[in-house]
Amino acid sequence: MKLLITIVQDADAPALVKALSEHGFQSTKLASTGGFLREGNTTLLIGVEDDQVETVKAIIREKGRTRTRLITPGVPLAEAPDPFLAQPVEVRVGGAVCFVVDVEEFFKC
Amino acid sequence: MKLLITIVQDADAPALVKALSEHGFQSTKLASTGGFLREGNTTLLIGVEDDQVETVKAIIREKGRTRTRLITPGVPLAEAPDPFLAQPVEVRVGGAVCFVVDVEEFFKC
Amino acid sequence: MKLLITIVQDADAPALVKALSEHGFQSTKLASTGGFLREGNTTLLIGVEDDQVETVKAIIREKGRTRTRLITPGVPLAEAPDPFLAQPVEVRVGGAVCFVVDVEEFFKC
Ligand code: NI
Ligand code: NI
Ligand code: NI
Predict the structure, then answer these.
(1) Residue A30 CB-density burial (10 A; 0-12 exposed, 13-18 middle, 19+ buried)
(2) Gene3D superfamilies per the record (chains A, B, C) (predicted)?
(3) Which own/partner pairs from B78-85 qualify as long-range (CB within 8 Å, at least 24 positions apart)?
(4) Which residues in chain C (8-47) have CB-CB distances under 8 A to chain A?
(5) Nearest to C30 among A31, A66, A100 (CB)
(6) Residue A65 Cα, ligand 1 centroid: separation in angstroms?
(7) CB under 8 Å to A39, separation ≥6 — which residues?
(8) Is B100 helix (H, G, I), strand (E, B) or coil?
(9) Dist. CA A90 → ligand 1 center (Å)
């Protein structure tokens, strides 16, 4: 068994936990902050059988990876005479970090 | 040395930390939530010498395991004419999950 | 790669995170409490390449180690006629604990 210590953006954590759960993987959420990612991140502990690690990695990449999103700045028209200001802007969101650690023994009770 | 990353119900955490301490084992409490157990759990980091792992596992099982408890629903008599409603009900409480990870090096300073 | 699961006093955490960052090491802060150290500590997850572990250990020792500090008790003079009470007192502050765990695999996405 492996323990995947996974740090994702707060905004991505609920969707990742839900996707993991739908695929039968349980996770425990720890409150975390700063460091590897921008402020506001969540650390998940995910225990995974060896033959399922690639599946879980794919789910993490799907839900937590860095990607860009187009947002249109919410500038009131009166204050933005320059139409360029109303153009959508590409911002980076998400981003995940994952440490895979070997678990020598696991038990539930 | 091993690190026992242990997730228990919030309600069981104080008794577990106390029992560990009484047996000479220190633990660090992380706030956690959801996932492996019902809402409201606590993750403990417990560093343990190899020859003490079984002792600590036994303490975790003693204080954190899933067990049943009989509770009598607090229904006001006037609203529960059916005496069956006043019967004790068996509920599951507790439950722990433990990942044992090898520690290559440990230091205090 | 190694994961250094490091527990320091809350008061020392910002300086440690800053020193790590200045040396190019990222860390993730988990809220923690009790156990290995006096109340009010912080757990840091620090991912480190094998050849950098000694450097990071030195930074942890520099910023988090137990040391003494002289404090002068803030007793109002009127209430402390005995001049002995105004003498500086040596108190212990700080203290860190670090578990070094092997990371089998690491990814960012
Ligand atoms: Ni899927
Ligand atoms: Ni005992
Ligand atoms: Ni330096």
Answers:
(1) buried
(2) 3.30.70.120
(3) none
(4) 17, 26-31, 44-45, 47
(5) A31
(6) 15
(7) A33
(8) strand
(9) 27
Q: Judge contact between C47 and C3, C-beta under 8 A.
A: yes
Positive/negative CA dihedral, C18, C23, C24, C28: negative
Query: Cα-Cα-Cα-Cα dihedral of B89, B92, B93, B99, to 10°?
Result: 180
CATH hierarchy code of domain A2-67+95-102: 3.30.70.120
CATH topology of domain C2-66+94-102: Alpha-Beta Plaits (3.30.70)
Question: Any idea where the domains of chain A sit in the sequence?
Answer: 2-67+95-102
What mean pLDDT is predicted for residues B50-69? 95
Per-residue pLDDT of chain C (109 residues; tens, 9 = 90+): 999 999 999 899 999 999 999 999 999 998 766 555 556 888 999 999 999 999 999 999 999 999 998 888 765 556 655 666 667 889 888 999 999 999 999 999 9
Q: Is the ipTM of this complex over 0.90?
A: no
Decide if A28 and B31 are in contact by the 8 Å CB cutoff. Answer: no
Residues of B in contact with A104 (CB under 8 A): 2, 100-102
Considering CB atoms only, which of B35, B98, B102 is closest to A17?
A: B35
**Residue C36: predicted pLDDT:** 53
Rounded to the nearest 10 degrees, what angle do helices C53-64 and C13-22 cross at? 150
Tell me what pLDDT residue A78 has.
60
Q: CB–CB of C99 and B106 under 8 A?
A: yes
